[in-house]
Amino acid sequence: MSKNKTTNNESNNNWLAAIGVVIAVLFWWLIKSNVKKDHKIKSLQKERDHMKDELLQISMIIDESIDLTNEVKVRLNRLLSQEQELGDKVKSELAQAFVLVQLRLMSKALLSMAKIIEESLKSVFSRDQEFKRKYKQPKFVWLLEHAKETGLLDKSEYHYANGIRELRNEEAHSIIESKDSSWEVTSLLVAMNIIVKLEAKKPKGLAAMLLPPFPSKRKINHESKNV
Question: Which of 16, 102, 120, 227 has the most neighbouring CB atoms within 10 Å?
């Protein structure tokens, strides 16, 4: 009888131990699960905060871009309506650029600006014997280089004008890469300043009518891959 009682007690103790182990395992699992949940919650909160910051930055960039784009529109419109010194051809091309800006086609608008700047530089340097002696042909890259060397364009103006020229070359070769929108807008603003500056330097009246043409199809004595 005593032996059976002892056996029963041992059996009960074993069951209690087993139950204790199960409870301990469950308790450990719950703790571990809660820890994982806490980590996951913290991770999600961190991701949410990060996304919130990114969205805020994107919103600020969009607002800034809209403001800059509006500034371009205002400046172009003012240029077309108030600038009396602009030639009819330049005004016509600026009007086309204005339409492109309205459509938010900034790269296309820059290509229009490139054409205006190039033609204006040709006019300005049409009587420049130093330019003709050095370069022979009025390629855009050399026109800009000479404008920088003579101080007609400052360092910043040359930088943006040359960037616009490179953009045009990429477009011509169908390998154009998307440019940063702030760069495009800034380039448009700088280009407008350059156009006004060059317009003031162009020969006027009879002098403009008697401009000697640049020589064409001559051997170039200045090597460059860019045009």
Answer: 120
